[in-house]
Amino acid sequence: MSGQGSIALTMRLDIRPSAGVAFWLPRFRELGCGTVLDYGAGKLRNSLFLAQAGFEVVAADRDEVVARWQPIDGIVPISLEEIAVSKRHFDAVVCTYVLNILGDLQRSEALVNLVSLVKPGGLLCIEVWRRPQARYRVEGELLHHPNLQPKALLIAKGLWSALLSRI
Question: What is the value of pTM for the model shown?
């Protein structure tokens, strides 16, 4: 699917953003983020929230997921395969609960891809389940990544969210 389409933004009251994305939104604004990639956008809950907040949003997911999305103004759909080879860079990249469902090799590859999509000085927002077995693998890879500088952590009931800056 081409990343060139977009559609009319409609408020869906049953969709709320992840807690981490809602929490970090003021930081995105403070740091002047304009373009945001929602990596593994799924049901578009974060994409809708970010588009309604005035950001230019690109939503990426597997081809079969993107094919089910209805067009929404302010959100550009694209497949994960396309975004990986696009050479685009974003002011911010959000990735919520995707890294939890990947195996070790897939997760490492996804992290390399995620970091490459963030502009230097841009933000990477990662959110994972707080359960230790899921969190520690991701936390170790992120907090010790040579191209990322941790900015802040949000640890709350059920979630672990990190805001990192690309060096």
Answer: 0.83
Buried b (16+ CB within 10 A) or exposed e, 88-126: eebbbbbbbbbbbebeeeebeebbebbbebbeeebbbbb
The whole-angstrom separation of Cα 67 and Cα 65 is 5
Report how far residue 154's alpha carbon sits from residue 156's, in angstroms, rounded to the nearest whole number.
6
Phi, psi of 39 (to 5 degrees): -90, 115
Q: How much is the pLDDT for 139? A: 67
Please state, in angstroms and rounded to a whole number, the distance separating the CA atoms of residues 141 and 123: 16
- DSSP labels for 41-68? -TT-HHHHHHHHTT-EEEEEE-HHHHTT
Structure tokens at 76: 């550009």
Segment of 71-85, 98-112, 150-164 carrying the highest mean pLDDT? 71-85
Q: Residue 9: is its pLDDT beyond 90?
A: no
| pLDDT for 136 | 54
Q: How many CB atoms lie within 10 A of CB 13?
A: 5
Q: Where are the alpha helices (DSSP H) in 70-149?
A: 80-85, 104-117, 132-143
Of the candidates 12, 59, 16, 11, the residue with the CA atom closest to the CA atom of residue 35: 59
pLDDT at 16: 85
